[in-house]
User: Which sequence fits this backbone?
């Protein structure tokens, strides 16, 4: 019977944690938490920087799109004028 009690006490000692061990574990968890918050803050900054860069790229694309649209309008207008002149010349030639 004493052997059984001694074994139980031994098992209890094996699973008990000292106050220092628990405090060490607790400090590690707080440190980990701080690292995660720091990482989160870095990710927020990264996201903002990326969004700023993407907005800049989007703005450049919009500017280029407007420029291309204007160029196509000019080309279409020139083509229309040239086709009109060709039509006039054809009509004159036909008469």
Assistant:
């Amino acid at each position: 019977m004493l052997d059984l009690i001694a074994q139980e006490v031994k098992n209890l000692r094996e699973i008990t944690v000292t106050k220092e061990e628990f405090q060490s574990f607790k400090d590690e968890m707080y440190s980990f938490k701080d690292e995660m918050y720091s990482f989160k803050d870095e990710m927020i900054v990264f996201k903002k920087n990326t969004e700023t860069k993407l907005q800049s790229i989007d703005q450049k694309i919009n500017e280029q799109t407007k420029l291309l649209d204007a160029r196509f309008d000019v080309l279409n207008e020139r083509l229309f004028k040239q086709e009109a002149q060709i039509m006039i010349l054809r009509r004159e030639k036909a008469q």
Q: What stands out?
A: Residues 42 and 53 are 16 Å apart (CA to CA). The two ends are 131 Å apart (CA to CA).
